[in-house]
Write a structure and sequence with these properties.
about 100 residues; elongated
Length: about 100
Amino acid sequence: MLNARIPWQRSYKYLGVTLDKNLHFREHIARVRKNALFYTARLGAMLGRKSKLSRRNKRTLYKMCIRTVMTYASPVFAHAATKELYWLQVIQNKFCKAATDAH
């Protein structure tokens, strides 16, 4: 253990946040996006046009499932590129459109 060489890594996951070489957090945002899309797909049946849930209940689903995934370690997003944040907004907009039957 003493004087052991530590291998170099391009990214490292610590407390659920993926840190990369230059602290751009691209991998972290990609993982958050992937998780949010996963949960959105699982909730799709409850959000569809023929769903009997009220908008209030759909909003509660969003707040409980999607928003918690997207806002974990959200101070990281202050240092992220706007292009990366755009893709998170796309997910939010898709969820809102599906929940409100907007086209």
